Structure formats: C-alpha cells, structure tokens
Task: inverse folding
C-alpha cells in the first residue's frame, strides 16, 4: 500500500495564510474558522494532526469515528454548494483528505505503516539498502526475518504446490490436507499473536514520545518494522493455504 | 503492468528449477525472502572444490513472475563462474537484462541475495571441512 503524503506534508505556500481565516481574519482551526465557521484551505498537516491527535499509536477509534462523521458532515461539498467557489474547492480537498486520514488511522496496520513513513522509515527500500551494504562490505546480508520463519514458509509452500498438483491430477491426499490444516491453524495463531505484540510496541512508542526519548523511539520503530516484515510472510501463507484448500 | 519478453520467457520456461542435496559439502544453499511482499526464494549451487567453479545451480521460487525470472537468470549466470566471480553479480544487471520496472527491483534484489547466501553457505562448509579458507584470490 502506498500512501500519498505529498499533499499532506508539503510546505505551505506562505506562512501567514494558514493561521488566520481567509474570510474574517480571525484565528482559524485546521478545517473551519472558529469565529465565522467557514471552510478553510487544507493546512499542510499529517493525518494525526488533521484530527488534532498527537503522533501516537494508541488511538481512541470510537472518538476518531465520531470526529470523522462530524467533520464529513460539515465538510461535505454538497453542503457547501452555495458557498464561495474557493470555499467549495477547499471543502472538496478537505473531504478527500479527511477520508484518507480516517481510512489510514482507523486501521491498526495502516496506522503503524503511516507512522513509520512519517518517521522516515522506508519500508520498501530496506531490503535493497541491506543488500547494498552487504555487497560493499563483502559480508553476507542479514536476512530481515528470522531464518527459521523463511524455512517454514518455504516448506509450507512446497506442500501447497503438491496439493495443487494433486488437485490437478484428480488425486486426493487426506494426510497432506490434514497437515496443511494444522499448519494453517498454527500460522493463524501466530498472526493473532502479532497483533498483541504490536500493541506492546505501540505502548513503547507512545511512552517514548511522552518522555521525548530518541533512543526509545528508535527502538520501538525498529521493533515495528521487524514485526511488519514477519507479518507479510504469514499473511501470504494464510492466504495461499486458504486458496489451495478451497476455503 | 506488462512483463518484458525476457521475463515471460524465463517465467513460462524457467531454467534449472529443482533442488540439490543440502547436506552435501559441495552444495551451498541460500534461502532468502523479500519482506516487501512476503515472497521466498531458494537458490543452490554445486561447486567444484578444486577449481572453485560453480558447476551446477538450481532454484525454487515462490513469488511473482519477476522473482522467478530473476532467479532463473541468476542460475544461468552463475554456472561456469568461480564463486568469486559470481559474487560480483549485481541486482542492477538483472534489472537491465530483464528490463524490470522500478516496482520490481526488489525481486532482483532477492536473486542477488540468494546468490550471496548460497556462496556464503558453501564457503562456511569449506571452512568447517578444512581449517584454511579456500579462497585463494
Ligand atoms: S513481488 Fe515479491 S519478489 Fe517480486
């Protein structure tokens, strides 16, 4: 998944237009003017600050949902149809920003990935970077996930291939199916455990933010990257096993 | 996204699919994964201990078409090379040969990783077999 951050973190064209309402000149909020209630042009915000949230991972999703519905009502382009042309445009822009922000923040994994990106972690680049380092130093690259997980993933894929073969040939191997079912249960359990583990890292991150501790922040970010990596293998496996078993 | 002809060729007609005896002293095995997508690749080489030349290579990849093509190509390239020559293969060369688009670069990275991991495994085995390292270059 690729999040387009370009429109959210781009620098403001000029500093002074963002702090005051374009219409009445009073202090404005991110979306509306406090004083006159007019829709404002989008500020260069990130999704957290769009909702007035700190850059933390434990998010009150119920409150987020409430804010989302309230804001979408107010920002709805139809509602502002009679407004000034610029205001209409802004309400369109704000609405789409609102939708992106909500969709990203309400999902625990998307929220985590988004935060990592905000913090400068390039999830897509990590493997390539590690390879380049290994090449330069002549060392063997450290695999990003534990070798025994890779081993398991590989073995299970071999079994899946056998199962697909069998199906094609019209053969049935109950022992193999049973084995796969068992593995699947195991991986599904692992998948659920990852969700728990992730919460632990969230707490570490949030605390580090409160304490403003750089090392702890880094540590929490690294743990989250590591977890997301393991997760993508397990997610694929569960998906492939389901597909092969025909569930 | 359209695959290049070369990718399609390797994909529909992969070279050197299979496996070799992992426990053999002449065989090096590399098992690597791409965290970006969760794909895995295994590449094995069989090396002549006298000459350090890679005499055979096999692979098995569970992943996208580009990963299969990259590993297929990698096995073709390493064959006949010495291990040290094979270590020079860069993912960018694979990208060029197969005309991979930017989003598929990580698939070629996987192939380079697999070559290096296999050679590393083989070297480690030689080191364990005799105390003196085999690399003479
Ligand atoms: S998409 Fe994963 S290796 Fe190509």
Result:
């Amino acid at each position: 998944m690729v999040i387009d951050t370009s429109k959210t973190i781009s620098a403001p064209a000029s500093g002074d237009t963002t702090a005051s309402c374009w219409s009445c000149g009073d202090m404005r909020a991110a979306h509306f003017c406090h004083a006159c209630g007019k829709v404002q042009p989008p500020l260069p915000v990130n999704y957290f600050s769009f909702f007035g949230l700190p850059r933390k991972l434990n998010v009150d999703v119920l409150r987020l949902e409430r804010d989302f519905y309230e804001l979408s009502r107010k920002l709805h382009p139809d509602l502002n149809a009679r407004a000034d042309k610029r205001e209409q445009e802004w309400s369109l822009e704000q609405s789409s920003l609102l939708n992106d922000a909500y969709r990203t923040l309400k999902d625990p994994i998307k929220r985590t990935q988004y935060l990592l990106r905000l913090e400068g972690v390039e999830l897509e680049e990590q493997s390539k970077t590690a390879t380049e380092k290994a090449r330069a130093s002549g060392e063997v690259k450290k695999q990003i996930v534990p070798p025994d997980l890779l081993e398991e993933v590989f073995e299970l894929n071999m079994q899946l291939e056998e199962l697909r073969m069998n199906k094609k040939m019209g053969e049935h191997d109950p022992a193999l199916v049973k084995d796969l079912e068992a593995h699947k249960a195991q991986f599904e359990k692992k998948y659920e455990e990852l969700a728990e583990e992730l919460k632990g890292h969230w707490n570490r991150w949030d605390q580090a933010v409160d304490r403003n501790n750089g090392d702890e922040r880094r540590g929490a970010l690294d743990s989250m990257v590591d977890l997301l990596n393991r997760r993508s293998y397990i997610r694929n496996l569960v998906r492939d096993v389901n597909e092969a078993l025909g569930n | 996204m359209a695959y290049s002809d070369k990718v399609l060729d390797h994909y529909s007609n992969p070279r050197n699919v299979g496996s070799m005896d992992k426990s053999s002293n002449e065989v090096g095995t590399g098992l690597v994964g791409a965290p970006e997508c969760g794909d895995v690749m295994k590449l094995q080489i069989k090396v002549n201990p006298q000459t350090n030349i890679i005499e055979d290579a096999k692979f098995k990849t569970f992943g996208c078409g580009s990963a299969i093509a990259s590993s297929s190509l990698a096995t073709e390239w390493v064959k006949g090379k010495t291990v040290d020559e094979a270590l020079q293969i860069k993912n960018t060369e694979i990208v060029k040969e197969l005309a991979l688009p930017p989003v598929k670069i990580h698939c070629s990275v996987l192939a380079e990783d697999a070559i290096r991991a296999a050679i590393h495994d083989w070297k480690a085995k030689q080191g364990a077999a005799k105390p003196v390292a085999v690399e003479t270059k």
